[in-house]
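User: I'm preparing a small set of examples for a lab meeting where we compare how different chains pack in three dimensions. I only have the primary sequence for this one, and I'd like the structure in token form so I can line it up with the others. Please keep the answer compact; I'll paste it straight into my notes.
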Amino acid sequence: MTYILWTLPAVAVIAAIANGRLGTLAASLLGLSAALLVALTTAPLDFRGPDAVIALARGAWIGWIVVPYILGGLLFWQMAIRPGNAAMPVEATLPDARARRRLLFTACFLIGPFAESATGFGVGIIGTMMLVRRLDVAPIPLLAFSLLSQTMILWGGMGSGAIVAAAFARTDPTTLAVHASFFLVAFNVLWLPLYWRMADKAGITGGWGEEAMDALLGMPGKAAGR
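Assistant: Understood. Below is the structure token output for the 226-residue chain.
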């Protein structure tokens, strides 16, 4: 029962966002209030008001560290998708089915993973969504394609994924990243059939030639990127 109570802050945030009636900030404040209530009433040690203030100050400091990364990533996307006075990509139209197919592949396998590995903290998935929205796909496929682009990242923001995994593996993050890269390339090969099926379901079709080009463009790029 205690463990269920400790999960309530996360559950409250998820439920608030899924409901659609609260924005991100309101959902975060709701989760923060739930976390304070749980910590002050069911903490496994003596946790009082002053301790909560210290914990909040520490959390604010840690959270502030990632803000420059997020702002830098958003600036990158603004520069990448809207050079000069050009219109936003979501306002433009694509000339043909081939261009739509190429944009989808580029967003999911190249630009999205690159942006997430370079900045992290969800910036990659935001940019991927902005690009895929041009294709006028339904919300569920849009989310699926965006999430697919994020499964190709080992380290994430500030290398947190590699650092944590290296600690469990009792090795250094660089060695782990180098060796795991070979598995990620193979993993991406397995994702291609799923991607093709998702694209066909979303109405972004392509023949064998396009699929062969996807494989040629994606795999060498992933190997070089690692």
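A couple of notes for your slides: The CA atoms of residues 40 and 48 lie 6 Å apart. The chain has a mean pLDDT of 77.

User: Perfect, thanks.
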